[in-house]
Structures are given as structure tokens and as C-alpha cells.
From TrEMBL:
Pfam annotation, one family: NifU_N
Top-rank taxon: Bacteria
Family: Belongs to the NifU family.
Alphabetized GO MF terms: iron ion binding; iron-sulfur cluster binding
Residue span(s) of domain NIF system FeS cluster assembly NifU N-terminal: 11-129
Name of the featured protein: Nitrogen fixation NifU-like protein
Amino acid sequence: MSFNNPLDTLYRQVIMDHYKNPRNRGVLDDENVEINMNNPTCGDRVHLTMKVEDGKIVDAKFEGEGCSISMSSASMMTQAIKGKTIEEALMLSQIFSDMMRGKAYDDSVDLGDIEALQGVSKFPARIKCATLAWKAMEKGLHSQQ
């Protein structure tokens, strides 16, 4: 990735912070949603556990192996979905997907650290890395509906 301006540098720092200091790393003991997914192209893998009660994501954790993009994205995603309803989390996932594909997205939603991944859309080979944990979350939440 080319980081030529201060915003790119800041985004790179946010991604590396989530990679080196992942939030919500681990496995929930009392999960009711468990998903394993991998990206065979590059070897990234994620194991996502979530606790969903009354249509709301009470907790989420992940384990896995992969590049800084995939692991940072998993960290950011678990932070973003905690406390959200299934519908809100799926809407956030759609916004993230649109952002990754370089499409217009609802920028009235505060994406927080997730916005740091916006530059990944310029690198098609890395988009699957960024979206792996999000796809796992979608698959898991659809099983709850």
C-alpha cells in the first residue's frame, strides 16, 4: 500500500494497532453462534463466536491467523457489533461491503476505526482479507434469523 499523506499514515497506524493489540481476541464459553471461515487464496482463517440474546449481539470474540488486514478487520468488527441488534450489525456489514467495493455508502453512520480500512478497496486482492470476519458474522447472524 502506498501511504503518501498524513491520513494514510494515520489509517496504517490504526490498522497496525488493532493487529498488534487485537480487541476481543479469544473464544466465548457461552456462545450460541460459532463460525469458522477461511480464505484459501491467502490462508487467512477466522473463528468467530458470538452471544446473541433477544435479537441483540451481547458479546463477540474471534481467533484466527492471517495478515494484518484480516486480523485488524476482525478486531474492529467485533468492537463495532457488540450491543447492536442483528439488523444493525447486518446493515453495518453492508456499509462495510460497499466501502470495500469502492461504492457509495451511508457515511452518516459512524464507522470509527473501521474507516481505516477504506484504502483496502484500492487493492482488490486484499478485499477478501478485510471482509473475511464480516462474512463470518453475516453467516452466523443469518443462522439466528
